[in-house]
User: Fold this.
Amino acid sequence: MNLIQDLEILDDLDAPKLTAEEAEGARKVYIETYGCQMNVSDSEIVAAILRAHGYGLTRDPEQADVVLLNTCAIRENAEQKVRHRLDIFRAHKRKQRPGLRIGVLGCMAERLRHKLLEEEQLVDLVVGPDAYRDLPRLLEEAETTGQAAVNVQLSREETYADIAPVRYDSNGVTAYVSIMRGCDNMCAFCVVPFTRGRERSRPVQSILDECARLVEEGYREVTVLGQNVNSYRYTENGTVVTFPELLYRVSLISPELRVRYSTSHPKDCSDELLHVHRERHNVCNYIHLPVQHGNTDVLRRMRRTYTREQYLALVERARRIVPGISLSTDIIAGFCGETEEEHRDTLSLLEEVRFDHAYMFMYSERPGTYAARKYKDDVPLEVKKRRLQEIIELQTRISLENNRKEIGRVHTVLVEGPSKRSPEQLCGRTDTNKMVVFDRQDFRPGDYVRVRITDCTSATLFGEPLGRTTLAESAHTEPVLV
Ligand code: 5AD
Ligand code: SF4
Assistant:
């Protein structure tokens, strides 16, 4: 039985992203996280809550008294992975560790609580994304009663603003800061509004304080997070702070702090926001801007609130206001009723925009969504697969062509740590969010290094380091040809 996960596959959105550090504590908790960056951030909040109540964290599931799976419900296969892991932990409990408590947190909790508790009797604990403060009590309850404990209540207020996350699997250089929760968009395919509830924004000052603390601790990059991050909106004493304003204020904390955000909706990508990218040297020249599809009728069925032409106009505007900005996107293949011609519109949109990167998915019907209630999931699996493959092949070619253009340019790279393949090499990201691998020399994580790009694949740039720099120094000089 393999309780240790293969942690190499970090780029897979559905793969587990973290384990926990060793710590002394009365009872040890092992946390495994699936899904988006928001879930990674939530696990850090869960770790903080449990630590404050005397629990220790462990990297080793064999040592754990409590195993928590922070789950994702976005696609069927994400759920299947979690079920498979639950089977493994349940067998471990039965054979070796009868006292083990197994909990399901996050997005699957609400959706599957009846199934998990009654039909399958799989778990001791089911806790939704807004109920983490209740975890210590629920663990107590499960312990004393021997029965499963549940809280899947969603909240209109909870933002965990006052909780300082325990960044237990951190590289010490880059950090996530959650700034809003939930989603009100109701895209037809998406389960998030049901699993995570209504949109709510975290108070401005608590965000600025957390970012400032990170700078003091030596962090060099923050990614502010929300399911729909650019609809951030917080009202204080009658004054409204919107996302561009918040981003601007975060960028003022330190000229050496890079600022990113994820994930945004095209409807909230205003000119004001684009101007913050332009004006602030430390707000990265990169936006993840999910388009989902290239055909206007499909976009309407998806309830995305924009047309193909409006999206293309937005891309044009972004590139005019922020020259050199890098864009990435999400694409869904095989949505309900998608014809061959509509599919080809997605391909032609990819050709037209030439994103640097895309996350590409096959449509997977999620119970309770608008699409599940109103449309037929009628594109045969084989057709979905073939269309997704065409999309992936095209985008891989475009990413490679875009990367080839980088050869000869010099980028400022923030070093994150050793590269996956060799301890003699370091890896880090450009301002435009491209991963660069280069020789270690005497550089360290947290350094800004000027790197001349010499080679690439569709996913990675390779280069030679030219020397240390500061973010302020490199602000208006890159990328340059030398
Ligand atoms: N099926 C396939 N992909 C989905 N996504 C969201 N819901 C579904 C679904 N039901 C994709 C979207 C979203 C990304 C996080 O996951 O592209 O932007
Ligand atoms: Fe998955 Fe969405 Fe939940 Fe993130 S918010 S864990 S992507 S279902």
